Amino acid sequence: MSREQEMPKYQQIAADLRAAIVDGDYAPGARLPGENALMSEYGVARMTARQALAALISEGLAVSRKGSGVFVREFRQIVRDGVNRLASAKWGRGSSIWASETRNRSLKVDQMTINEVEPPAHVKSALDLSGDETVICRSRRYVLDGKPILLASSYLPSRIAHGTRMVERDTGSGGIYARLSEIGYEPVHFQEDLRARMPLLPEVDQLKLDPATPVVDIVRIAYTEDGQPVEVNEMTADSSAYIFRYRFNS
Amino acid sequence: MSREQEMPKYQQIAADLRAAIVDGDYAPGARLPGENALMSEYGVARMTARQALAALISEGLAVSRKGSGVFVREFRQIVRDGVNRLASAKWGRGSSIWASETRNRSLKVDQMTINEVEPPAHVKSALDLSGDETVICRSRRYVLDGKPILLASSYLPSRIAHGTRMVERDTGSGGIYARLSEIGYEPVHFQEDLRARMPLLPEVDQLKLDPATPVVDIVRIAYTEDGQPVEVNEMTADSSAYIFRYRFNS
DNA sequence: TAGTGGTCTAGACCACTAA
DNA sequence: TAGTGGTCTAGACCACTAA
């Protein structure tokens, strides 16, 4: 129970529950008092009890399951090593850049589309394309242990990708970067821009996001040795599934 | 107005408004129809109209201002170059690592505390400290154009920082990293881990966050040439103020 | 079948904003 | 002072879950 006469009731209730969760009185996955329990315990109306629970849910501390209850949220994140995963030694010898991040867990691509399209404006400028050049867009959804974690769209200039395995579903050992290297466009320099934001509704569906889960947009541009951009990869990640790691020197 | 008999009313209303915002019918900063307008336009109760607006707010598309209305959200982000900002050439010659990110804008530290403390568990293991070693914790809040954007706590082993300018408020030209270099602990290797999540209530206050704004936790560890960890910097950033950029090779 | 969270109503009073 | 969003009540019915 709380004091603080000035604080709205629902915030007082939320504060009590929040403190109990942070203190560990309710472990991850544990069931919290429901609407009815809060109504009688605090003597408030249903909508007020709901507001309190909604506050915890919107902070990402709790999730509700219809017909079942409200529970303390559980997390399980994988480390994505932004630099080492793209070391040419990795894809050079044909292994997936995902291997070290997902060992012992099942990673699948469960949706893939390949299309030739007009480039979106920012892709066009990132790839330094002239007026009417088209791009190959490879879109995929990655699923880890049955949970979607990443949406990725890779854009390649059509003039480079045409007639190669880069426009096929299976790009072969070492993937796109190995194929680019074989035809003289080895990607050597990379830039990744990260932005966190709340997801839009279609993204909530596609990534099966819990409430109050931000997404992270990652835009990677790959450049050849002489600075020519050869690929743009736009990704949207479930932030609750990821730790983004970057190692660098000097 | 929407169809979709199965969708709850408040979601239909939210969908109408969302589409209008995405289509640009309401520009950033524009005023949206309020509770009363939605109640009469859709013939729903106040709480239902509120639910619709709450959905947009929780997606980060809108913000409400009490007594005034609900408005389309505006963004203004700065690029934080994770790698170049730490190039020794920068702090080596004494300039702030913030300079290039914030030109023409006013960046200030408006809160600072310096304490000798027992290290939190993860700091202790990151800095490879023995049982009873303490650390110097420098905590600051950074404010850009009057808006708090970053909370940062830098941890240094007491045995290294004691008796140097690193325990004073003004650490001098080039900052902590310049001071570390002078006494034989030049930071050369860095690791940054990024995590996005929803803020807790005290963070909402400290960073004056709009609703539905995620924060990004950044944990940076600085290592000397021979791999000895010398500093851990834990940061919490307002994600709506930042684009995180990393450039790297191979 | 009992209990749960999800949606919704038709009111009320309040503090705040802006004309 | 009129209008706004914020809080709150005391009900109702629903679909869903789990015993």
What would you say this structure looks like, in words?
2 copies of one chain form a homodimer. By secondary structure, chain A is α+β, with helices and mostly antiparallel strands. Chain A is 26% helix and 33% strand. The first copy, chain A, is built from 8 helices and 11 strands. In chain A, helix 2 (35-42) crosses helix 3 (46-58). The first copy, chain A, is elongated, with a radius of gyration of 23 Å. The first copy, chain A, binds a DNA duplex (19 and 19 nucleotides) through residues 8-10, 34-36, 44-48, 50-51, 53, 64-70.
Topology summary:
2 copies of one chain form a homodimer.
Chain A: H1 9-22, E1 31-32, H2 35-42, H3 46-58, E2 62-65, E3 69-72, E4 78-81, H4 88-92, E5 107-117, H5 121-126, E6 135-144, E7 147-157, H6 158-161, H7 175-182, E8 189-197, H8 201-206, E9 215-223, E10 229-238, E11 242-249
Parallel strand pairs in A: 4-11
Antiparallel strand pairs in A: 1-3, 2-3, 5-6, 6-7, 7-10, 8-9, 9-10
The structure holds a DNA duplex (19 and 19 nucleotides).
Question: What is the structure about, briefly put?
Answer:
Two copies of one chain form a homodimer. Chain A is α+β, with helices and mostly antiparallel strands and 250 residues long.
